[in-house]
Amino acid sequence: MRDAMIRNGFDVYAIREQFPVLDREVKGRRLVYLDNAATSQKPQSVIDALINYYSGYNANIHRGIHTLAEEATADFEKARDAVQLFVNAQTREQIIFTRGTTESINLVAYSWGRQKINAGDEIIISGMEHHSNIVPWQILCEEKKAKLKVVPVSNEGELLMDELEKLLTSRTKLVSIAHVSNALGTVNPVKQIIDKAHQAGAVVLVDGAQSTVHLDIDVQEMGCDFFAFSAHKLYGPTGVGILYGKKHLLESMPVFQGGGEMIKEVTFEKTTYNDLPYKFEAGTPNIADTIALRAAIDFMNKVGKEKAREHEHELLYYATEQLQRVPGLKIIGRAKEKTSLISFVVDNTHPQDIGILLDNQGIAVRTGHHCAQPLMRRFGIPGTVRASFAVYNTKEEIDELLAGLQKAVKMLV
Ligand code: 7TS
Question: How close is the Cα of 176 to the center of ligand 1, in Å?
Answer without folding.
Answer: 15
